[in-house]
Design a protein that fits this description.
Blueprint lengths: L3 H20 L4 H10 L4 H25 L8 H22 L2 H21 L14 H20 L4 H11 L5 H25 L5 H21 L5 H21 L1
Helix pairs in contact: 1-2, 1-9, 2-3, 2-10, 3-8, 3-9, 4-6, 4-8, 5-10, 6-7, 7-8
Length: 251
């Protein structure tokens, strides 16, 4: 990295993203453009972003485990296997894509996901029974294969889509969905990270610097296990994402 303040920027952004990813998702909408902004090629930025996600996920899981919040069921493992197969396919596509095309795809994805975050209806499944067996398990496994393809390809907004699927198909509460989201993303991101690493598309210094911030944000937020402050997060994301999307598309 050319300038010392890039390190500071990555740590600060990492802390913010660690909080955002743990509460809902969409943190890669900030980290991907920032990594490109500091000078990384698009596919390297895409791979490097996975370093921070893996490390944050470890701290998230540790935070949830410290509160005895992780349920020892096989449900997240089934979803993880399906998502991992998809992620390998998605990562291969991301490695081969041209940087300029990737930037334009990212710009469209950023605006689309943020629009979904802002306008999606509020849902409350706390009074409904979980649906994690039988046909609902099959629906989720199929859906997570496609989640894996998308996550392996671009990652941005994957957490939001996971929460949407777990709430709509399986009727899981936010806290249960967040815990499963962290486990699934940790496992399939390891596979995607391996793919990017095998193709020399990682910047470990930038990735570990970003990860240091995300680990701090993820650890404390997972222990709090709260969903407060969504309004502020949404406003911040909208402003940042629109600005970054304009830069990616036109510059």
């Amino acid at each position: 990295m050319e300038h010392w303040y890039y390190y500071v920027l990555l740590v600060v952004v990492g802390i913010i993203v660690g909080i955002i990813n743990t509460m809902s998702g969409g943190g890669s909408l900030l980290t991907l453009p920032v990594l490109i902004f500091i000078g990384l090629p698009s596919n390297v930025a895409n791979g490097t972003n996975r370093i921070a996600i893996v490390i944050q996920s470890i701290f998230n899981i540790a935070g949830y485990q410290s509160k005895k919040a992780i349920d020892k069921s096989w449900f997240p493992i089934y979803l993880s296997i399906s998502a991992t197969i998809g992620a390998i396919i998605g990562a291969k596509l991301a490695i081969d894509i041209k940087g300029e095309l990737f930037n334009k795809i990212l710009a469209v994805v950023m605006v689309t996901v943020v629009g979904f975050m802002v306008f999606r209806p509020k849902q409350n499944f706390s009074q409904l029974a979980d649906r994690i067996t039988g046909k609902y398990l099959k629906y989720s496994v199929i859906a997570f294969f496609f989640i894996g393809i998308y996550g392996g390809f671009i990652q941005a907004g994957t957490g939001i889509f996971i929460l949407l699927l777990l709430s709509s198909i399986n009727h899981l509460t936010l806290i249960k969905s967040n815990i499963i989201k962290v486990i699934v993303m940790f496992i399939y991101t390891l596979a995607a990270l391996f793919m990017f690493g095998m193709n020399l598309k990682l910047d470990w210094i930038a990735g570990l610097t970003l990860a240091s911030g995300q680990a701090v944000g993820g650890w404390f937020t997972s222990r709090w296990s709260v969903n407060k402050g969504d309004g502020i997060v949404k406003v911040f994301l909208v402003i940042m994402v629109i600005g970054m999307a304009v830069k990616l598309w036109f510059f």
